[in-house]
Sequence to fold (35 residues):
Amino acid sequence: MGKHPDAVKSKRVAGSIIPVIHSTEFLEWRQKNRE
Fold:
């Protein structure tokens, strides 16, 4: 049972990091389009 909570936390962290990466790529993409 101890491993399950850790797995859930890992998924939650990954879910939080992924949107941040996407928004960063989106900002870079906007800057490239401005040029």
